[in-house]
Design a protein that fits this description.
This protein is an alpha+beta fold. It has 2 domains: 1-146, no CATH class; 149-251, Beta-Lactamase. Helix content is 50%, strand content 14%. The chain has 8 helices and 4 strands; from the N terminus they run ααααααβαββαβ. The chain has helices spanning 2-52, 54-57, 69-84, 96-114, 116-119, 131-146, 170-180, 216-219; strands at 150-155, 191-197, 200-210, 241-250. Strands 1-4-3-2 form a 4-stranded antiparallel beta sheet, sandwiched between helices. A hairpin with a 2-residue loop joins strand 2 and strand 3. Helix 1 (2-52) crosses helix 3 (69-84), helix 1 crosses helix 6 and helix 4 (96-114) packs across helix 6 (131-146). The longest helix is centred in the N-terminal third of the chain and has 51 residues, at 2-52. The N and C termini lie far apart (44 Å). 27% of the residues are buried.
């Protein structure tokens, strides 16, 4: 009888431990998802500033475009706050969220400041400093700051990838094929799960991005026609899946 009692107590203790672990794991997942959402929102905000200023950037008659790192970040912060209803500057800078977000903000400012010569080059029209280029450069600068803790990448279905650096890995390929491209997947809904990346456990998030009308000058029709960047157009339509923001938070 005593043995049975001991067994019952041990079973209850194990059950409590498992339940507590599940609660902790769920809380960790929720926190990481919030961080990923925030990083995606900030990158989108910076990219929006670059997109809105494409005509200015490509105007050969204007020298200084007034788009240094500080100016672009000020505009990006406003867009981020409008979209998330959160002031990013109030996020605790000592928290993981705060550290990563500020590293990303620094990366945005760095990319803009280091590309001033290109952006402000007089007498030249198309500068090739487009939102996609901006996003890639920001993600690379971000990785240099926090590469052991997190990384971001803009990828896409393989047939839409223009830059080899953006090719989807096995996990991204599977998520795009089996989740984001399926007719039943809710438009705009991200996919998140715990998975391995570079041999390490990580919380991975895939955020679908869809072609807007402004994207079609390069990615629309007629399919195969060479666009201003020198690539053949994909023949896409507004609302088609055009890219995926892949965010990895290592554990």
């Amino acid at each position: 009888m005593k043995t049975l009692h001991v067994f019952a107590v041990a079973f209850v203790c194990v059950a409590i431990c498992v339940a507590n672990f599940s609660v902790i794991q769920a809380a960790s997942d929720d926190e990481d998802k919030a961080i990923a959402d925030s990083l995606a929102a900030m990158l989108r905000a910076g990219r929006t500033v670059v997109s809105r200023n494409q005509d200015r950037i490509n105007n050969p008659d204007i020298g200084d475009k007034g788009l240094d790192g500080k100016t672009v970040m000020e505009q990006a912060l406003k867009i981020y706050q409008e979209n998330t209803k959160t002031d990013p500057l109030l996020i605790d800078p000592s928290s993981r969220h705060g550290r990563l977000l500020r590293a990303q903000m620094d990366a945005i400012a760095e990319v803009m400041d280091s590309n001033q010569k290109t952006i402000n080059q007089p007498g030249v029209g198309f500068k090739a400093f487009i939102p996609a280029t901006f996003g890639r450069l920001v993600n690379e600068a971000f990785a240099k700051r926090v590469g052991s803790e997190a990384e971001m990448k803009i990828t896409a279905p393989l047939d839409l990838v223009r830059n080899r650096k953006a090719r989807p890995d096995d996990w991204e390929t599977e998520v795009i094929r089996d989740k984001l491209l399926t007719a039943s997947w809710p438009k705009g809904q991200l996919f998140a799960t715990v998975a391995t990346s570079r041999g390490r456990p990580a919380f991975r998030v895939a955020v679908p991005e869809y072609y807007a009308a402004s994207c079609l000058s390069c990615h629309g029709g007629p399919k195969g026609q060479i666009d201003v960047t020198g690539y053949p157009k994909e023949g896409a339509n507004e609302g088609d899946l055009g890219g995926v923001m892949s965010i990895t938070l290592y554990r």
